[in-house]
């Protein structure tokens, strides 16, 4: 499988609960490498734009409120089949349905306050990475 990049957010619930290290350790243990990382506080406009695909959903307003309640850590992850691997390590969106040992099973509270976001496909990953990181940011980190 090819080396891929994917995009991850450690959400406000997990940052507030001091789980940046615990979550990153699970990503690294799965063979993913953090190649870019920064802490940001999303504005309402940024959260609305990032989750625009969910704008018609009943949970959209709550999701935007949650994602702006405190700082998040946005990361670019690299590795073999990174998109799928990250989704496996994260576990199901609803932590009640997430497998033992996954990030969401370990750290999430409920389907909304679910500790992490990860891109769902390589194309989405490209768009989500570009939302937060410039080409120059990433080029300077090429190995
Ligand atoms: P994420 O993977 O970031 O993608 C969209 C987010 O919306 C999801 O994680 C949850 O935080 C949230 N979400 C998805 N489904 C629901 C739901 N049914 N109720 C509340 N929040 C949800």
Architecture overview:
- The chain is 42% helix and 20% strand.
- The two termini are 19 Å apart.
- The protein is globular and about 40 Å long.
- It has 143 residues and is of the alpha+beta class.
- It has 8 helices and 4 strands; from the N terminus they run E-H-H-E-H-H-E-H-H-E-H-H.
- The mean pLDDT is 96.
- The chain has a 4-stranded antiparallel sheet with strand order 2-3-1-4, with helices on both faces.
- Bound molecules: adenosine-3',5'-cyclic-monophosphate.
- Adenosine-3',5'-cyclic-monophosphate binds next to loops.
In short:
With 143 residues, the chain is of the alpha+beta class.
Which features characterize this protein?
143 residues; alpha+beta; four-stranded antiparallel beta sheet; 42% helix; 20% strand; globular; binds adenosine-3',5'-cyclic-monophosphate
Set out the fold topology:
Elements: E1 3-10, H1 12-16, H2 20-29, E2 33-40, H3 44-50, H4 60-67, E3 72-80, H5 82-90, H6 103-107, E4 116-118, H7 122-132, H8 135-139
Antiparallel strand pairs: 1-3, 1-4, 2-3
The structure holds adenosine-3',5'-cyclic-monophosphate (CMP).
Residues 54, 59, 63, 93, 111-112, 114, 117 line the site of adenosine-3',5'-cyclic-monophosphate.
What is the count of helical runs? Answer: 8
Bound molecules: adenosine-3',5'-cyclic-monophosphate
Share of residues in strands: 15-25%
Mean pLDDT: 96
């Amino acid at each position: 499988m090819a080396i891929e990049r994917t995009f991850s957010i450690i959400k406000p619930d997990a940052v507030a609960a001091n789980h940046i290290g615990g979550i990153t350790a699970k990503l690294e243990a799965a063979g993913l490498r953090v190649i870019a990382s920064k802490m940001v506080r999303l504005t309402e406009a940024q959260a609305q734009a990032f989750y625009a695909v969910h704008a018609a959903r009943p949970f959209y307003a709550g999701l935007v409120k949650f994602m702006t309640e405190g700082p998040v850590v946005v990361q670019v992850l690299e590795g073999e089949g990174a998109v799928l691997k990250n989704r496996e390590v994260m576990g199901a969106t609803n932590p009640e349905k997430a497998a033992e040992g996954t990030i969401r099973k370990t750290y999430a509270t409920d389907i909304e306050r679910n500790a992490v976001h990860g891109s769902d496909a390589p194309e989405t990953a490209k768009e989500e990475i570009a939302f937060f990181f410039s080409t120059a940011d990433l080029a300077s980190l090429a190995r």
